[in-house]
Amino acid sequence: MAIMNRIWFYLLLFAVLAAAFNNSMEAVTKASFDAAKTAVNLAIGLVGAMTLWLGLVKVAEEGGLLRLIARRVKWILTRLFPNVPPEHPAMSAMVMNISANALGLGNAATPLGIKAMMELQKLNPHPERATDAMCLFLAINTSNVTLLPLGVIAVRAAAGCKDPAAILIPTLFATTCSTIAAVVAAKFLARLSGPEEAPVVSNENKAEDTFTEEKRPRISSLEKTFIWLLVFLIFLALLYRIWQDPGAEALKQLISFWLVPLLMLSLLLFGYFRGVPVYEKACEGGKEGFQVALKIIPFLVMILVAIAMFRASGAFDFLATLLKPITSPIGFPAEVLPVALLRPLSGSGAFGLMSEIVARAPDSFAAYLASTIQGSTETTFYVLAVYFGAVGIKDPRYAVWAALFADFVGVAAAFFICRLTY
Question: Is residue 240 part of a domain?
Fold first, then answer.
């Protein structure tokens, strides 16, 4: 039986059991309906993001950007993903997703990640069973190196922290450790699983690999010059904003607001300069995004309902209490433990707990550690449910264990570096 089946079943079982002893059946019932509604709203909210970003990626793909990216990073990707053809679109889609996650572009990272999973699924000889490449990609995704934990920095700044950006280096260290752990764990478990069947390379993928730039007419030199002039004006406007408010905090906020529009513009510029009919191809890719976003609704509902019931029943609090005798002797703050435990289950829940700790004592060690953990770990079960659900994978194999091991290493590394640098 697939591990996700057991996890989902036992979350519900222990939720009902804990509710029976804690007399919290009413709260559990309410939580189940609220979580189901939240999941649907979340999925509907993803429809717009998925439609937009998969449309933009389609433009870049038609222009040959994915092929070019795959060639540039071929040396490392072929070692990490030996069963994926070197110039396959999946390679560059994975790179774009990992880069978006590193920059903290959550709204853009999820559609790019799903695009990567869709490309990997084209190579899958068993469409309902995850491949080694999928497991490794998701393990890396849930432990991705984070360069700019902008959301957490914003919370710390709003709470009046003396140095809101102090978590940048600890977060980078913790995520680097967790990513290395994810790769090692996934490779080790893949070896235990035995050799994998050869990937399925379709004619469609071969056609993408043999893309030629001469397929479409290019824009005139005059129009190209005009476009570059406008881009230069945008660059001048950015420099002016930086000159107006040169402070470090203002610069971080400016970057967080400018990154997404500039990324969108870059993808469109690449396609437009290569003669891609950008509007038509964006709409074509957007149709795919719309269908995928609706497809993940059942997976989101089931996993979010189970997690909400587990929290509302009191089982989560019991688990945290059970682990305190282990964490207290090493100096792990008791109030931060729920953040570490909840982070793989609920991103919003962990973010709320972290925000509360930071608001109460913004410059305390607990706030420093909670902020680092929040910025350097991922909502593992949400990611697995969405990404596997989007491509119809029912057996995730060892992906859950590799991701959870990376989460554990990330929390341990965050605690270690925070003790050294606080």
Answer: no
- What are the Cα distances from residue 39, in Å, to 117, 161, 299? 21, 33, 9
* Domains of the chain: total: 1
* Straight-line distance from the first to the last Cα atom of the chain, in angstroms, rounded to the nearest whole number: 45
Amino acid symbol at 274: R
Q: Is 363 exposed, middle or buried (0-12, 13-18, 19+ CB in 10 A)?
A: middle
Q: State the pLDDT at residue 232.
A: 93
The percentage of the chain sitting over the pLDDT mark of 90, rounded to a whole number, equals 17
Higher pLDDT, 300 or 277: 277
Q: Considering the domain boundaries, does residue 58 fall inside one?
A: yes
Q: What are the beta bridge partners of residue 395? A: 129
Average pLDDT of every residue of the chain = 81
- Which residue do the tokens 């919003």 mark? 348
Q: Is 386 among the domain residues?
A: yes
**Structural contact between residues 133 and 397, judged by C-beta atoms closer than 8 angstroms:** no
Q: Assess if residue 279 is contained within a domain.
A: yes
- Residue 384 contacts residue 351 (beta carbons within 8 Å): no
Which residue range(s) make up the domain with 365?
Answer: 3-218+274-421
Amino acid at 357: I
User: What is the length of the chain?
Assistant: 422
User: pTM of the predicted model, to two decimals?
Assistant: 0.73
